[in-house]
Amino acid sequence: MESMKILVTNDDGIHSPGIKALAEALRKVGDVAVVAPDRERSAVGHALTLHHPLRAVQIGHDAFSVDGTPTDCVNLGIHNLISFKPDLVVSGINRGGNLADDVTYSGTVSAAMEASLMGIPAFAVSLVTEGIGEHYHAAAGFAAQLAREVFTRGLPADTFLNVNVPDLPGEALRPPLITSQGKRRYEGLIVDKVDPRGRKYYWIGSGEQTFLDLEGTDYHAVSRGHISITPLHPDLTNYSSLRLLHGWELT
Ligand code: MN
User: Fold this and answer.
1) Hey, how many other C-beta atoms are within 10 angstroms of the C-beta on 178?
2) 182-204 pLDDT, tens digit each
3) How many CA atoms lie within 13 A of 115 on its CB side?
4) Which residues surround ligand 1, an ion (CB under 5 A)?
5) Torsions phi, psi of 207, nearest 5?
6) For 115-144, what is each residue's pLDDT tens digit?
7) Cα 107 to averaged position of ligand 1 atoms, centre (Å)
């Protein structure tokens, strides 16, 4: 079989432990190039840099750090920087889960979406942890297994995968479940305080992460120790609402 060519990116930055573990594991199953942000760019979503130039620094053979977003990295990587056209783009391993509604903020998931928009099979991998994460190598091992499967079978058109792996040693991980995107519970997420110079400031995201424990969802799977694989597509159309809106009396 021809060797699989893989582009690796992330949103935690090129020096994060997750991308190192991922690239190392994928090198055992294919040729790997790394193009990733030069610093953490978590929660930038699908942002594309249009209003200032981007710089890339080569830091190894087929490895580049870019002062842009994960979506910038996929674009620059594929069109300019790396020496091959990838068969697969893998984004991660993110420090922290990308579950439920959080996928809409995720730079990690958006990088996979960008590849999918370009017609290249892709998946995002995240380690579900509240801390710095311990078991990146176990998650990376699963990513390598999944990469081979995607390379062999392909993915349906407009489909990319969002993979979440519990932060457990390999032998403690339970088998992967195919899931749907879950639902977050929104509560007091913003800190509202006064800085040392007397000005108010706000800080988003201090609340505890809570998700609805719905059967069949990504959260339900990972909270029980299973790896979760959710097929996503970039089309956000809510097809079940089309008929309803057609019934509105708009002229
Ligand atoms: Mn991140």
Assistant:
1) 11
2) 999 877 678 899 999 999 999 98
3) 34
4) 11-12, 42, 94
5) -70, 160
6) 999 999 999 999 999 999 999 999 999 999
7) 7
For residue 11, is it within any domain? Answer: yes
What does pTM read for this prediction? 0.95
User: Where would I find the beta strands (DSSP E) of 80-199?
Assistant: 88-95, 122-128, 160-166, 174-178, 190-194
Q: How far is the CA of 91 from the centre of ligand 1 (A)?
A: 10
Give domain status of residue 241, yes or no: no
| CATH number of domain containing 140 | 3.40.1210.10
Number of C-alpha atoms within 13 angstroms, CB side, residue 240? 0
Relative to beta strand 30-37, strand 4-9 is: parallel
User: In total, how many domains does the chain have?
Assistant: 1
Instruction: Report the separation in Å between the CA atom of 232 and the middle of ligand 1, taken as the mean of its atom positions.
Output: 19
Distance 11 CA to ligand 1 centre (A): 5
Q: Hey, what are 226's tokens?
A: 């299973």
Preceding amide of 93 cis, omega within 30: yes
Residue 105 C-alpha to ligand 1 middle, in angstroms?
A: 10
Spatial separation of the C-alpha atoms in residues 165 and 245, rounded to whole Å:
38
In 10 A of CB 66, how many CB atoms?
Answer: 24
**How many A from CA of 43 to the centre of ligand 1?**
7
Kindly report the backbone phi and psi dihedral angles of residue 125, in degrees, each rounded to the nearest multiple of 5, phi listed first.
-125, 135
Task: Find, among 225, 113, 211, 207, the residue nearest to 169 by Cα.
Answer: 225
From ligand 1's centre to the CA of 185, what distance in Å?
A: 20
Tokens of 34: 């790394």
Ligand 1 mean position, distance from CA 175 (Å) = 24
